[in-house]
Amino acid sequence: MKYVLITGGVVSGLGKGVTASSIGVVLQACGLRVTSIKIDPYLNTDAGTMSPFEHGEVFVLDDGGEVDLDLGNYERFLDVTLTKDNNITTGKIYQSVLDKERKGDYLGKTVQVVPHITDAIKDWIESVALIPVDGKEGPADVCVIELGGTVGDIESMPFIEALRQLSFSVGQDNFCLIHVSLIPVLGVVGEQKTKPTQHSVRELRALGLTPHLLACRSAQPLLDNTKAKLSQFCHVEAANILNIHDVPNIWHVPLLLRNQNAHQSILKQLNLLSIAAPPDLEAWTRRAETFDNLTDSVRIAMVGKYVGLTDSYLSVVKALLHACIACSLKPSIDWIAASDLEDDTAQSAPEAHAAAWKSLRNAECVLVPGGFGDRGVRGMILAAKYARENNVPYLGICLGMQISVIEYARSILGLEKANSHEFDEDTPNPVVIFMPEGSRTHMGSTMRLGSRRTLFQTPDCVTSKLYCNPHYVDERHRHRYEVNPDVIGVLEEAGLKFVGKDETGKRMEVLELPGHPFYVGVQFHPEFKSRPGKPSALFLGLILSARGKLEAYLTRHQNGS
Ligand code: GLN
Predict the structure, then answer these.
(1) In whole angstroms, how far apart are CA 204 and each of 8, 91, 144, 164?
(2) How much is the pTM?
(3) pLDDT digits (tens, 9 = 90+) for 17-28
(4) Strands, E, within 384-518: which ranges?
(5) Catalytically active residues, by annotation
(6) In terms of CB atoms within 10 Å, which of 55, 128, 181, 464 comes out highest?
(7) Could you tell me if 541 and 519 are in contact, meaning their C-beta atoms sit under 8 angstroms apart?
(8) Nearest to 34 by CA among 142, 122, 181
(9) Does the CB atom of residue 387 touch ligand 1 within 6 A?
(10) What's the pLDDT tens digit per position in 363-385?
(11) Whose CA is nearest to atom 6 of ligand 1?
């Protein structure tokens, strides 16, 4: 196994994840098989309990892992399927060491950060690197490891020490360290400053790690003399100083790296030059350029709770982008805080209320994404009602599906108090209820998580046609509540069709409203499996329908073209 370690210096938020994924893409383009590991030095066991407000979206894997959103970047860029073990946290490492200690596995020894924690980190990395993630058999050629945080953080110290030991044990030819750093420019003088990078490289060296390459983030391309300085003071060959300057979209990053021969430097360090092919990035180039040249914008209303931080819905945004590009459209997302649509807001903040409704009315389609808790729920119900009544294409994801069921029960069945048990435990008409897969009384781990199968009840529904599969689809889940099986009969009689169910037939997975141009609710999260070049079927359906092109598309597909 060959390892490429990505560390970061100077400041956080440099786009280390994108850099690491892009390096993976370039290596893949050279014909190598690539896997990846993300290290998050925080104490949480996983991202499951972290607020999207603070940390961005919780990404969900096939195996039910709730992980850092960077893993989403890896899956999308490298088109791989990762496991929860590909995300290492301090919490997981300590938990495994403490479990061993309780079992008496350390045979009376004093259990310490060095060597026990560091050994656990090394063992974890070496065993996870071997898991195939690209659908082929046997381990990948290269494992890209991204160390979260910035070098010098107290909490990343055990990881740095473990990685230092790993670099030594796997040997020179199998380890390549790329340090991502920032080259700021000071306003008045306009000079590119290398000193922060010098300091962070010095810090890295003091901890026993020597960078082979530097990936320097900057607004403008690096000047030759900046590169020369960096090379001299950081002890890194000039050819190995890469520059990731600002680009119009992140798909340019692999191209930028290839143009600077990053692959040559990495392959040389890893002694892989003889087996690697010249990088083939044709599809990436095409996509990046198409993206740059899109002019026709499609207006999408995103009605959610966490609209202040767009990273909260990162995968949904990416999935919209993938679908739009497939239709040669530019996504123009209007973020609507659901609570701004509510009647109360008309009193308390009339301007926000008017602006929210204006955006909604202006939109060509509406998306209500997943969420937890009751904030904004009334606004989401209004958005679903608006889309249903006005024939505006609507996609409800997870909470968004539950919302459309509540709305339908209230407006069409006349059950004014219909609700989800999540928002009103005493509702007389619980149309959405708690349906744990395991125990009803045990509170921990009650979420339905990861990949589950949906069986289409009829091949004659838009969803199955879009998925090009008359029988089933496997998508990822993350929820506790579900449509109450007892109300399916009345809802269906009133026109709302549940066209996708789980294998038991008790869990509703997909709803559609026949006669509406596109009104689809799904209990799963299709956004997690969308890829550049392979857009998620339902996002594609939403966008096509926003432009009135869905039917023509489905007819074309049915005819096999
Ligand atoms: N809060 C809802 C549930 O737990 C929806 C969850 C979601 O949208 N991911 O079922």
Answers:
(1) 10, 24, 18, 10
(2) 0.93
(3) 999 999 999 999
(4) 394-397, 419-420, 430-434, 448-456, 472-479, 481-483, 497-501, 508-512
(5) 398, 525, 527
(6) 181
(7) no
(8) 142
(9) no
(10) 999 999 999 988 899 999 999 99
(11) 479
